[in-house]
Write a structure and sequence with these properties.
Order of helices and strands: HHHHHHHHH
Number of domains: 1
Structural class: mainly alpha
Number of helices: 9
Helix content: over 70%
CATH superfamily: MetI-like
CATH architecture: Orthogonal Bundle
Distance between the termini: 60 Å
Shape: flat
Strand content: under 5%
Number of strands: 0
CATH topology: MetI-like fold
Length: 215
């Protein structure tokens, strides 16, 4: 057993938290970009695009995130792609986030009254201009609470990437616990760090819900 002081444990966990935050930000940004494309497919006028969008969302929402990470990390090398834990974690969480964000935003688009589309058309806007100038800004505004709520879920989901070898907060905690045999201290601090990261976002989501106008 290696001797670690409380501050040694905390310092190492805080150092690892940087990677948890970086992975969360990359996955959220990437998920937003891909999710926007899936949203366009989901609300497209062409049936085959709508079916593709619906199938994509069903696939990633209907399968465990851990399985998706395994397929990225263990499956892609069998197809000839060399992939590191960081890349597999970022890709897995990006696709996972994109499905949920696309569905959240689709709900926002469908919550808008048909008159919003008609108003855009009356101004001579074509379909993409209607989306960019009229529909999407309103849809994004009314879906901010669930989007922030999903970000909380995404931050907590980064812990699963420890299983494929990504050195984030939980994997570092496992290594420290194996060296110190102090699970209560180590995992108690991990829980506290996740709480500090997630609780303000949870409260912010609730604040947005209270401020959201009724439709």
């Amino acid at each position: 057993m290696i001797e670690f002081t409380f501050w040694d444990i905390l310092r190492n966990l805080l150092f690892a938290t940087r990677w948890t935050l970086l992975l969360s930000m990359v996955a959220f940004a990437g998920g937003a970009a891909v999710g926007l494309l899936i949203l366009f497919a989901r609300i497209a006028k062409r049936p085959w695009l709508r079916r593709f969008g619906a199938g994509y969302i069903a696939l990633f929402q209907g399968t465990p995130l851990l399985m998706q990470l395994f397929l990225m990390f263990f499956g892609l090398p069998m197809l000839g792609f060399r992939i590191e834990p960081w890349t597999a974690a970022a890709l897995g969480l990006t696709f996972y986030a994109s499905a949920y964000l696309a569905e959240i935003w689709r709900g926002g688009v469908e919550a808008l009254p048909r008159g919003q589309w008609d108003a855009g058309a009356s101004l001579g806007l074509h379909y993409l201009q209607e989306l960019r100038l009229v529909i999407l800004p309103q849809a994004f505004a009314i879906t901010r609470p669930p989007v922030v709520g999903f970000l909380v879920q995404l931050i907590k989901s980064t812990a699963l990437t420890s299983i494929i070898g990504f050195e984030e907060l939980l994997r570092t905690a496992n290594a420290i616990n194996n060296a110190t045999f102090e699970p209560f201290t180590v995992y108690g601090l991990v829980a506290a760090i996740f709480f500090v990261l997630c609780y303000p976002l949870t409260q912010y989501a609730r604040l947005l819900e209270r401020r959201a106008p009724a439709h």
